[in-house]
Structure formats: C-alpha cells, structure tokens
Amino acid sequence: MSTASTQLPQGRYGRSSDVRTDRTLKIVGSVLGAVLLAVVGWFGWHYVAGTAISAQVITFQATDNAVRVHLEVHKDAGTAGYCTLRSQSADGTEVGRADFRFSGSDTRVDQVVTLRTTARGTTAELLGCHSD
Hints:
The structure is a single chain. The chain is of the alpha+beta class. The chain has one helix spanning about 20-50, and strands at about 55-60, 65-75, 80-90, 95-100, 110-115, 125-130. Strand 1 (about 55-60) and strand 2 (about 65-75) form a beta hairpin. The chain is elongated and about 105 Å long.
C-alpha cells in the first residue's frame, strides 16, 4: 500500500505571493482611516468651538399681537451677532419671526425682547444664533 502525503500542496493554502500587495492595501487603508478621523474631528471641533454666540429662551408671555421673550445670550467678549426667534399659533402656523441683535463687551446678555405677531402666538422658539 501507498502512504498518503501529510504535506499540503505547494501554493494552494497559506500565504500567497501577493504579500506585498496585501501590505500596501493595509497601509493605504490605515492612512485613509486616519485622514477620515482627522476630518471628522476637525468638523466636530469647528462646530463646537466655532460657535461664538449661544442663547436660550428662559420664559415667554404671549398676547394677541406680540410675544415677550426673556432671552439669555452667552457670547465672547466684544462679539456682535444676532439670534432668530419665531412664534407659532396653536395650529402650528408661523405667526412671527425676527432677528434680535446683540453687541458689546458683556459675555452674558439677559434681555426681554418683543416679537410682533400676526395672530396670538403660543410658542417662542429660538431658531439659532450667529456672529457677524
């Protein structure tokens, strides 16, 4: 009887002769992954740190033709900018929208502003703040 060979056929299993190509693909993938991570990190930092003005609505009081909004604004010293407010009626229709400007050397502005409306508003929504 003949005995079976215990060795695997040459070149059929295991590493191929394209080891250099595999290594190159790993390097290119790693570099592209690092670049993608850097870009995402930069955009995230720019989004968080690039905002020079932030605000929040503390309270609001609605009448038939206006909404008085107590607005608290945090900004960098000397930065000028504006915040956009809007009001909606009970059925969701927008009844008022306006920009309110802030400037000066204060880092915190606590102000009551009046948003004129075309009908009775039931909300006071801060849409966003932007620096000039």
